[in-house]
Amino acid sequence: MPAKKYLVSDIVNPDLEMERHGASFRVDEFARWWHGGAEKLRFKRELEQDIFNDMTEHNTLFLYKSHEEISELALKQSFDVAKKLRTIQKRVNPGGNDIWPKLYTSSWIWGAMPAENPFGVQFSMMVDAIKMQGTDEQWERFGKRVENFEITGTYAQTELGHGTFLRGLETRADYDRSTQEFVLNTPTLTAYKWWPGGLGHCCNYCLLVAQLYIDNEPKGVQMFFVQLRDEETHMPLPGIDIGEIGHKKGFYGVSNGFLGLKNVRIPRLNMMMRNAKVQPDGTFVKSPISVLTYFTMVMMRCMIAADNAFLLAIAATIATRYSAVRRQSPINPNEPEPQIIDHVTQQMKLFPEIATAVAHKLATNSLWSMYHETYVAIERGDYTRLPELHNLACALKALCTADANAGAERLRLACGGHGYLTSANLHTLVAAAAAACTYEGENTVLLLQVGRFLMKSWRAASEGKPLSPTASYLAAPAQGKGFDKWTGDWANIVNAIQYAAASKVRLAFENMSQRLKQGQTEGEAANNTGLELTQAAELHGRSFIAATFLAHVTGPAAAERSAAFNRVLQNLLELYLVHTTQRHLSAILQCISLSDAELRTLQTRLEIALKKLRPDAVAIVDGFDFHDCTLSSTLGSYAGNVYESLFALAKQSPLNQQPVPKSFHTILKPFLKSNL
After folding, report:
1. pLDDT tens digits for range 381-424
2. DSSP calls for 44-68
3. Does some domain include residue 257?
4. pLDDT band at residue 3 using 50, 70 and 90 as cut-offs
5. What is the pTM of this model?
6. Does the annotation mark 232 as catalytic?
7. Which pLDDT value is given to residue 163?
8. Which of 541, 569, 594 is the last residue of a domain?
9. DSSP string, 217-243
10. What span, in angstroms and rounded, lies between the C-alpha atoms of 83 and 90?
11. Domain presence at residue 185
12. How far apart are CA 597 and CA 214, in angstroms?
């Protein structure tokens, strides 16, 4: 339950009360499943109690502050949370491994830092990058200082002129063997680092990604630990040009920054050397596999995909609760206005997003499992699964963020005019998802990478060679086996999506091959096949999500769940599969024949799925178990006092603190008296 003091009233709206009483399953069972078990759910709720206990002001009020005030607030909130987590650490795990750094970037506590966390990149990326890319000695020297928050830092990769294309980065690190130092430079304006979170005015160190040169010969992209500001005065060090990049659509307090370097020298041992190495005499030792340099980015893409499933679930919670409270537009003349959730068109805005959030959660759980398995394998020197992990992370990062962005906006629109208010907090979710579509790999570029992976996989399948598990569905189509028959059951729908994906892969492969035969270079052929490659990559990702959802709902784990809860998951699966089929019907009909009757049946099934989910919709979003401080919404609180909350927040506007604002006397009245 949410913190009482954060609400206008703790008396639950009667319409929401009615919805909860009418649910067909136990909400707590859903919550335990969603959060990974009873113990994790208990820990999450206790954590929320500790973190949100003293929050009395609505999270969206910070938006009335100036840019400088928001930056200061973000610093204060981030440090308050760090202190609370340290206290929790001492209580729950005294003397054990630190758990607070991971919790510091957890989606469970987003609501405690509504202005966002300037040190999110430090703890979500920089710490792990030093662990993965640095030696044990380097971790002891400066990695622990970063993790212990003794210093502040960020991961500085993206440049003003280059983002996703890492080979194009211009920042240089030239090795000077006479002093055993690297000399760092941003030789052009476009080489300036641009966007790293916290870099602007919060960080005194960074993990710099730069092109290594030895005797002016390029050795590829490497990482370097660089001090930027004096630890006592916070003044930029000589050769450092640093600041923040300005106001943004979201992430208001993160202090995203720019960084230029001019002849900045750092010791040789400040280059991350777990994999690639530079010996004192300038000898370069290559990494056993080049993609290891980017393994931190793979981890981040897993995290972003999972976070955006969570984000979409937050938006769905707000819009669904609001739709149960809001009454408008009688369905039959002369009848009372119904809850807008009773309108089928409203259900179509809400329920597919709920199902998508669940589907993405399951898919990203599977992605994380693959990540941890691959990490263990890499520790043994086994890199065989790394390409598959990399490409699945690219696909899910692209799809989860794009779906969250479009879905959160659809849900905002579903809340009508009230959804446009910042106090609804839906704009924040839309902005966060929009940012995720471009950071850590722009989505189209990531889909093109997946497309290239699929081209290699199709060639291997055509030659009867082994395929990675996530591409194994290509084997039969590549050998000429057609789609058996449309029956419309769940397994059949998943097979149809896979077959459509395989068909898109085949067409892209054939068209690229044809362009190569016509004399185009490999790069030109890939560029000209870009539309087909991205379409194939999207369907490849969709087929993985659908197959994962099906396996979870119908697999052995179903025996551990109650029959009532299984029915809810089955209804969500049915809606997801039918809706996905309709979204990609053009691609499916290109390779599979469906009759008019079968197409009509799909529409009927969609409408039936909406009808089945209607009585359970509020209970399902309750099962996501979001604290009111996480939702931060006048429209979506647990108690559902929408109108009271909207009015209370409006009264707190700075312009309403005086009956007559000073602008009347200084601007409005003089104008009205000016006889224009």
Report:
1. 888 889 999 999 999 999 999 999 999 999 999 999 999 999 99
2. HHHHHHHHHTT--S-GGGGGGS-HH
3. yes
4. very low
5. 0.95
6. no
7. 85
8. 594
9. EEEEEEEEEEE-B-TTT-PBPTTEEEE
10. 11
11. yes
12. 68
Mean pLDDT (whole number) for 68-91: 92
**Residue 95: its pLDDT value, please?**
64
The tokens for 238 are 């000589």
Of 412, 427, 420, 423, nearest to 637 (Cα)?
423
| 548, part of any domain | yes
Q: How confident is the model at residue 668 (pLDDT cuts 50, 70, 90)?
A: very high
C-alpha radius of gyration, the chain, whole number: 27
The CATH number assigned to the domain holding 269 equals 2.40.110.10
Q: Which token pair is 156? A: 């500085």
Structural domain total, the chain: 2
pLDDT of residue 6: 55
DSSP for 620-632, written as a single string: HHHHT---HHHH-
Residue 31 token pair: 């919550």
8 A C-beta contact, residue 297 and residue 393:
no
Q: At what angle do helices 344-379 and 530-554 cross, to 10 degrees?
A: 90
- Mention every residue, 6+ apart, whose C-beta is less than 8 A from residue 454: 471, 474, 505, 508, 533, 536, 537, 540
Q: What is the CATH number of the domain that holds 477?
A: 1.20.140.10
pLDDT tens digits for 487-520? 999 999 999 999 999 999 999 999 999 999 999 9
Q: 589-611, pLDDT tens digit by residue?
A: 999 999 999 999 999 999 999 99
- DSSP states of 114-162: TT--TTHHIIIIIHHHHHHHS-HHHIIIIIHHHHTTSS-EEEE--BSS-
Q: Which domain holds residue 545?
A: 443-594
Q: Considering Cα of 636, then 642, then 647, then 648, what sign does the dihedral take? A: negative
Residue with tokens 């984000």: 311
pLDDT given at position 89: 86
Structural domain contains residue 516: yes
Q: From 573, 594, 615, give the residue that closes a domain.
A: 594
Please state the separation of Cα 524 from the chain's center in Å: 32
The whole-angstrom separation of Cα 473 and Cα 469 is 8
The residue annotated as part of the active site, out of 159, 244, 440, 574, is 440
Confidence of residue 97 (pLDDT cuts 50, 70, 90): low
The total of other beta-carbon atoms located within 10 Å of residue 381's CB is 8
pLDDT tens track for 182-215? 999 999 999 999 999 999 999 999 999 999 999 9
